[in-house]
Design goal:
With 478 residues, this protein is α/β, with parallel strands linked by helices. It has a domain of 329 residues: Metal-dependent hydrolases (TIM Barrel, Alpha-Beta Barrel). Helix content is 30%, strand content 21%. The protein has 13 helices and 21 strands. The strands form four sheets. Strands 1, 2, 3, 4, 5, 16, 19, 20 and 21 form a nine-stranded mixed β-sheet that branches. Strand 10, helix 3 and strand 11 form a beta-alpha-beta unit. Helix 3 runs parallel beside helix 4, helix 4 crosses helix 7 and helix 7 runs parallel beside helix 8. The longest helix has 18 residues. The protein is globular and about 70 Å long. The structure holds zinc ion.
């Protein structure tokens, strides 16, 4: 077992900060010590193998990205990051755990799918990984299998009110799955948009000759998110299941979540960097020399990035401050412009939905600290501590304390990060939705279970270091 001492840094948690040294023994954090401790009078007195000087820097628990789709099959293609490339990019950006979605399409067996995803990830990941399970159709065998998956550490299930014929479940199917969640304690995750209305709006837009990417956003108005959010909250209320609404982007959907929480319900919400920073006007409707009015395809994801009208972006930042929204994930689902996004050149409805941000989340959210949007402690909370706790990993992940996994990031607030292909990102993606974003901070060193995976020389980890995280039930249930 090797020992590492991270000295001189400011250790930041969800609740405070202070100068401290962090002693790592093997894969675990052994102690958080007064700065400059001589380690006398304890069994820690032996010399450490490695010292990492973090003077003037922040020492934070590694990021937990609870919403990724590595090599996900969708729309006739696959998300361009594999478990290997995607988790390596995550490590570069200070994320040390992901929770990825096992996909089930109608008629597939969820236990078989789970096994498939386990095989895809095994031996490939640079950092630790867990799984949520997607339910598209809700077979009676799936309901039984949900108990088996919970026992395997898959304690969260995601359903959709959009994508008819692919992922959409009707209200009765959602109701049955939620009844099971209420019984076994699993977190029910919802993609909440009214897919039936969106389908009509898309068809009408295409018939009127509107094919460009901005129509992706225009045919998914905020009312379709508000309505579906309200509906799934009602189903959670009826059944007593805990509910987590993924990628919330509309101010009015936040209001639904806030109202449910005020009534005492176990309802939670996630947002993503794209809903905080990007807009329909500046991005989905953008034009470029290279891509013309297809430029906006880079930003096609669902829920869509929204108009500046109604102040959705500011409302999302505010919801992070007030805890109406509890955490930030990426919904990392990258598709290259060439040969992938291009599938939708003639119709916005055929553009593969998704963006790549797994490498950028910690930096983008840190910029929120610099800009005065959130506090330093809240940064750690929404990117690491809450995701760990939300999905049953807290204690091992999301915190710097003795006994926790030594997933640690040394972050330099005086450093600088230029994001984008121009900044040589590490995602397997031929563009960046974040091209030109300049961050007043830098990920210096990343440890995953005690091993340095990123340092000043770059990536020094390896595929296969990452292990499956067998998760418990959400630690937020009341
Ligand atoms: Zn997603």
């Amino acid at each position: 077992m090797t020992t590492t001492l991270i000295t001189g840094g400011t250790v930041v948690s969800a609740t405070g900060r202070g100068l401290a040294d962090v002693l790592v023994d093997g894969e675990k954090i052994a102690a958080v010590l007064e700065p400059g401790s001589q380690l006398l009078g304890s069994d820690l007195t032996r010399a450490v193998d490695t010292v990492i000087d973090a003077t003037g820097k922040y020492v934070i628990p590694g990021g937990v990205d609870a919403h990724t789709h590595m090599e996900m099959p969708f729309g006739g293609t696959f998300a361009s990051d594999t478990f290997e490339t995607g988790t390596r990019a995550a490590a570069w950006g200070g994320t040390t755990s992901i929770v990825d979605f096992v996909v089930q399409y109608p008629d597939q067996n969820i236990l078989d799918q789970h096994q498939l995803w386990q095989e895809k990830a095994a031996g490939a990941c640079a950092i630790d990984y867990g799984f949520h399970q997607i339910l598209s159709d809700v077979q009676s065998s799936s309901l039984t299998a949900m108990d088996e998956l919970v026992a395997e550490g898959v304690t969260s299930f995601k359903l959709f009110t959009a994508y008819k014929g692919v992922f959409l479940s009707d209200d009765g199917q959602i109701f049955r799955a939620f009844q099971k969640g209420a019984e076994n304690g699993a977190m029910m995750m919802m993609h909440a948009e009214n897919g039936s209305i969106i389908d009509v709006l898309q068809q009408q837009a295409l018939e009127a000759g509107h094919t460009s990417p901005e129509w992706h956003g225009l045919t998914r108005p905020w009312q379709t998110e508000e309505e579906a959010t309200h509906r799934v909250i009602s189903i959670a209320d009826l059944t007593g299941a805990p509910l987590y609404v993924v990628h919330v982007s509309a101010k009015q959907a936040v209001e639904q979540i806030a109202a449910a929480r005020d009534r005492g319900m176990n309802v939670f919400g996630e947002t993503c960097p794209q809903y905080l920073y990007l807009s329909l006007e500046e991005h989905l409707a953008a034009k470029s020399a290279e891509w013309g009015d297809f430029e906006g395809a880079k930003y096609v994801c669902s829920t869509p990035i929204r108009s500046r009208e109604h102040g959705h972006q500011d409302a999302m930042w505010q919801s992070l401050r007030t805890n109406d929204i509890q955490m930030v994930s990426t919904d990392h689902c990258p598709f290259c412009m060439k040969e992938q996004k291009e599938l939708g050149r003639d119709s916005f409805a055929k553009i593969p939905n998704g963006m790549g941000s797994v490498e950028n989340r910690m930096d983008l959210m840190y910029q929120g600290v610099v800009d005065g949007r959130i506090t330093l402690e809240r940064w750690v909370e929404i990117t690491s501590t809450t995701p760990a706790r939300m999905f049953g990993m807290y204690g091992r992940k999301g915190v710097i304390q003795p006994g926790a996994d030594a997933d640690i990031v040394v972050y330099d607030p005086k450093g600088h990060t230029s994001i984008g292909v121009g900044g040589a990102h590490h995602m397997n993606l031929d563009y960046s939705a974040w091209e030109g974003f300049e961050i007043d901070g830098h990920v210096d060193v990343v440890l995953s279970r005690g091993s340095v995976v990123v340092d000043e020389s770059g990536y020094v980890g390896r595929a296969g270091h990452g292990r499956y995280i067998k998760r418990g039930l959400s630690q937020y249930l009341s």
